[in-house]
Design brief:
Alpha-Beta Plaits; flat; 24% helix; 4-stranded antiparallel β-sheet; 6-stranded antiparallel β-barrel; 3 domains; alpha+beta
């Protein structure tokens, strides 16, 4: 028969396993992947841009006084052995456009990517058009891709004699898989003995948590250079398989730290609060003032056969009503849910809540950054 000590040890092992399991589940539930919190230095997209012509439009292209479209058409035809006078061409079915695309990291020659086409003239719509062969250049002036193909516009334009109907922006469209990569960009950083993790939102606490999480799996491999940069040394056993090492780092879960912040959009009346917002004990009262102005005109007419004249006298009536304010006590250390409930208890709309928050901040009782956009 097993001894009592063995049974106790088995039970303790089971309890420890259950505790560790739930701790791990909690971390996965409330944590975010390092991939979603940061970038790997040296791994980035590169913006490409080019100038081209869209043909095949049904009379919705640039007007004849668009000089650069006429000149571009003449230059293109001259390369094909046809010489024309740019001032005598009609470009109603042609539009000059800029073509933009994002070259992904590790994009290989022959890979296909999407492009965005935007009119730079006075074209009314790019719907039904086809982009002619357009080289796309990077910031260094080198050609990295070639774009060509039919354009898909997420809108339409219908014009009649006396009315016009438009949906979305028909002068901007996309070409799905219409860009072919012609030149690759090398990433030498992936061949080094270390990688650098850059946080999207620099924060000392988040940086420390990322370092601690990485060092749990790779002891002593990570250290923080500052609040947004973390250096990670590649283990000897993974130096020949850096992709696997980066994949392991990216999929680690970390709970990020957030700054106490309230963002207010006065244009739309939107208020967004973070979970670290702290308010001291304050009493809030809010009352609306309604001013009503009514204009009337009193007309006095003379009696029949009298030699008087008609007199018009303005009559202005002003009425002011003030609602009784309701005092609401907001205690110190309340949660976001309780704060929202307290705000709703005052019975004021969102735009008035914005004013209340600004007033609480001015009173020094709001320990959070209040950003108005």
């Amino acid at each position: 028969m097993p001894s009592i000590n063995c049974l106790i040890q088995k039970k303790l092992s089971l309890i420890i396993f259950v505790v560790l399991f739930f701790v791990n589940m909690t971390q996965n539930l409330y944590g975010a992947r390092i991939k979603d919190l940061s970038y790997i230095n040296g791994v980035r997209t590169n913006q490409l841009v080019g100038y081209g012509l869209v043909v095949g439009l049904n009379g919705t292209g640039d007007k004849s006084n668009t000089i650069f479209t006429n000149q571009s058409l003449a230059n293109m035809l001259e390369k094909m052995g046809i010489r024309i006078d740019p001032t005598k061409t009609k470009v109603n079915n042609i539009a000059a456009v800029t073509v933009t695309a994002d070259l992904p990291p590790f994009g290989k020659v022959g890979n296909k990517i999407d492009a965005t086409v935007s009119s730079i003239g006075d074209a009314k719509s790019l719907g039904g058009g086809i982009l002619l062969l357009t080289p796309l250049k990077g910031a260094d002036g080198e050609v990295y891709a070639i774009a060509q193909g039919p354009i898909v516009v997420g809108g339409f334009l219908a014009t009649g004699t006396g009315a016009t109907v438009q949906k979305n922006h028909p002068t901007v469209g996309r070409i799905a898989n219409g860009v072919t990569i012609e030149r690759e960009i090398s990433y030498a950083d992936m061949k080094t003995d270390s990688i650098t993790v850059s946080l999207k939102t620099p924060n000392y606490t988040t940086a420390r948590r990322v370092v601690d999480r990485i060092n749990q799996s790779f002891a002593g491999a990570a250290y923080a250079k500052d609040s947004g940069t973390i250096a990670v040394k590649t283990p000897d056993e993974l130096k020949k398989d850096v992709v696997r090492f980066v994949s392991i780092i990216e999929n680690m879960d970390v709970k990020p730290d957030n700054t106490a912040k309230i963002v207010v959009d006065e244009k739309t009346g939107t208020v967004v609060m973070g979970d670290n917002v702290l308010i001291s004990t304050v009493a809030v009262s809010h009352g609306n003032i309604t001013v009503q102005v009514k204009e009337d005109t009193n007309v006095s007419q003379p009696m029949p056969l009298a030699r008087g004249r008609t007199v018009a006298t303005p009559d202005t009536q002003i009425k002011v009503e003030e609602d009784k304010g309701r005092w609401v006590i907001i205690p110190e250390g309340i949660t976001i849910k309780e704060l929202v409930s307290a705000m709703n208890a005052t019975g004021v709309p969102t735009r008035d809540i914005i004013t209340i928050l600004q007033t609480i901040k001015a009173a020094g009782a709001l320990y959070a950054e209040l950003e108005v956009i």
